[in-house]
Amino acid sequence: MSPDHRSTRSLRLDLLDQQVLDGTERPVGRVDEIELEAGQDGTLAVTGFRLGGAALGRRVGGAVGHAMTGTCRRLADDEASPLLPIESLKDWSPRLTLHRALSELPEVAGLERWLGKHVVSRIPGGGDARV
Amino acid sequence: MSTSKLFSFTLGTLSAIGGFIDIGDLVADALVGARFGLRLAWVTVLAVVGIMCYAEMSGRIAAVTKRPAFDLARSRLGPRYGLVALVGAFLVTGLLVMAELSGIAFSFQLLTDISYLFWVPVAGLVVALFLWALPFEILERIYGIVGLSMLVFVVAVWQLHPDWGHLWHSATTPSPTPGETWPIYAFLGITLVGAQMTPYEMFFFSSGGVEHGWGPRSFAEMRTNVIVGFPLGGLLAIAIQAVALVVFYPAGIQVEHITQTVLPVVVALGKVGLAFAAVGIFAATFGATMETLFATGYDIAQYFGWSYGKLQPPAQAARFTAVTASLLFVSVALALTTLNPIQVTIVAVVFSAMLLPLAFLPVLLVANDHVVMGQYRNGKLSNAIGVVTLGVSCLISVAAPVLLVYTRGGSG
Amino acid sequence: MRGSDLLGLPVVDVSGAVLGPLRDLRIDGDERDGRLTVRWLVVGGREWAHRFGYIDGRTRGPWLLERLLRGSSDSAVAVAASAVAQWGPDQVLLSEPAGAAAVPVETAARTW
Amino acid sequence: MTAALWYLVWPPRTQAGYTHQAQQTIGKFRSQVATARLWGRELDRDHTFLATASVGLDEMETDATNTLDQFAAYQPPAGQEPMRTEVTTLGDAVVTDLGELRIAARQGRTATVVRKAKRLGDLLDRIDTTTSDVSS
Known about the structure:
The complex is a heterotetramer. Chain A has 4 helices and 8 strands, in the order βαββββααβββα. Chain A is of the alpha+beta class. In chain A, the strands form 2 sheets. In chain A, strands 3-2-8-7 form a 4-stranded mixed sheet, with no helix packed on it. In chain A, strands 4-5-6 form a 3-stranded antiparallel sheet. The longest helix of chain A is centred in the middle third of the chain and has 14 residues, at 62-75. The model of chain A has no long low-confidence stretch (mean pLDDT 84). By secondary structure, chain B is mostly helical. Chain B has helices spanning 3-18, 23-36, 41-65, 69-112, 116-133, 136-147, 152-159, 164-171, 182-196, 199-211, 219-248, 258-304, 318-336, 341-354, 356-367, 370-373, 380-406. In chain B, helix 6 packs antiparallel against helix 12 (258-304). The mean pLDDT of chain B is 87. In chain C, a hairpin with an 8-residue loop joins strand 2 (18-28) and strand 3 (37-43). Chain C is globular, with a radius of gyration of 14 Å. The chains are: A alpha+beta, B mainly alpha, C alpha+beta, D mainly alpha. Chain B binds chain D through residues 109-113, 247, 251-254, 256-257, 259-260, 262-263, 266-267, 269-271, 274, 401, 405-406, 408, 411, and chain D through 4, 7-8, 24, 27-28, 30-31, 34-35, 38-39, 42, 45-52, 54-56, 59, 63, 106. Strand 1 of chain A pairs antiparallel with strand 2 of chain C.
């Protein structure tokens, strides 16, 4: 049917749930939600995406989903699963790579940051968390 | 091929052997051998073929996409069913970590007569230190090579001077022994499938491939690991069944303990055999503890997209490290509740067999994804074996709970 | 609006006839210049068939699995994004009748 | 789910059920005694460390005790009390003999273990006679 190399990509299969790496190729999470906006000219565009349990919880749904969203909201000091604009994206082939490193993305992967700095890096041999 | 390449090549393959026997095999194979002889050996053979097909597929996917098997579950099953697969894999593999840990403790007990419960925290500490300090290549080599001492079971078969005709007759009679019923025969067949076809091996195998930086050029090494490792694991499983048949079946002995699993080796080879068996069981269960522990950590990390594994210092995979450490701690605690690890193993193995479709389906789909795999997508053979294995695993996941209850866990 | 809310909404043509649920969006453009626009809507067909990549044509075979999971292949259609008058919040409204807008997914897939 | 659990713990009510349970119990005793005798024989041939044999013997004694307690707990249907008595007295003998073996092993008295293990042959004969009694 369609040739194997393509000009368009699928929102469901190529973007949603796709692995996201930071500027240093370090996995930081997955695309848990996608934001779209309709422009004046009627065309719909992807404007950004969200990483984090709060957004994921909404898509899982059911009691488990609500629990996930709830806990993430309580854990996050500011807004849980904040919106990352498309401009922060360096590359999408097939994994998403961000321009900036995790240390420059204060609102992303809070749990990783906290555990890395306060717990694991303190254990001898734990290494530097670079967060 | 330069000698160092050849050396690492063979080491890679040898280390695969250590990882293919775990407590599930040690218990299930001995139990089945004592009761049905080799009449279920054909199940082990088919299970080896099935897991080889899916291990090769997930290894190929890992080499092409640089993403391990479980990574695909969420992208192909979606967040909700990916979560179901995750929770299922977590519970089953989590139980297995506890059983494997107890396996290490049993191997210490074999030579010291100090209760295995004393050894469980020691085993937990040893595993934690090894995992924390040593890089993977070294770990794989250690338990791989040491695991070779499991071959003592194969030697024991010869040493027992069995009536080969009887063994062959047993292996070619796919029906229950007199006085045994078909439901129990089927149930024990399912436990063999669960013991042999363990999804955590597929996840660990493919995640290891990603960490070793496999690319399409490493297909040869990957396939050698599969072609040598899994069948040898199957051979060991059948050897355990055979020695149990020769020594236990005539005496009407029912296998319930690891000490009974090694008894035929004692009969055949004496103290030397026993020492080898104890070391082999230690290596097998030690390797399996690490594999089940990391496979569980991988599953969770890959579902949420965290960094994982040992490529970076632990602090840079903090969530993965925290989850893995807490699972090890919980497993030690669970083992110390004196819950019988052999029963836990049988239950874990049966539930693992029930979850096979959730583990196999995403792999089979992605292996046929032209955009992802391009020219490396499945050929007719992989697809044929893959579909048959998936079909059988669906039947098993329906039949397993019914038979588990009907045969009262095989005691019936 | 959120992608997961959009997926699943009924796609309705100008005369009010429902083509089916919105299953996927084809995205065009280059992420480096920050412009990712939706070119096609993929409407109808079993959700699992979409999720496994059969409708999109990327996953082909194994034969038995595809027969089981794909369902009737003509159930999914593609609609050019330019034919959409309104995106959400509870339906996707087209500015043309279904006959004009909808194209079998196989033919559309050749160009995407 | 509850139906399944009920089925699992449902004690035998019928005569056939009780007899089947008795046969199962005797089969377990045979397995435990045969294993203990094998450990004794291997100890005699210096094929095993005493530590390993005593672990094996201890496990067999514990299993025998559990098997006996479980069977004794079943309520025998009317008229099957003699069967219960026969199986439980056999069970007592098994638990006692295996206990003596485990104690000797733990005390390091290998010769005693070997001697007692040899005498388990008579116990196995007794198990055979009980098996035929129960099933006739």
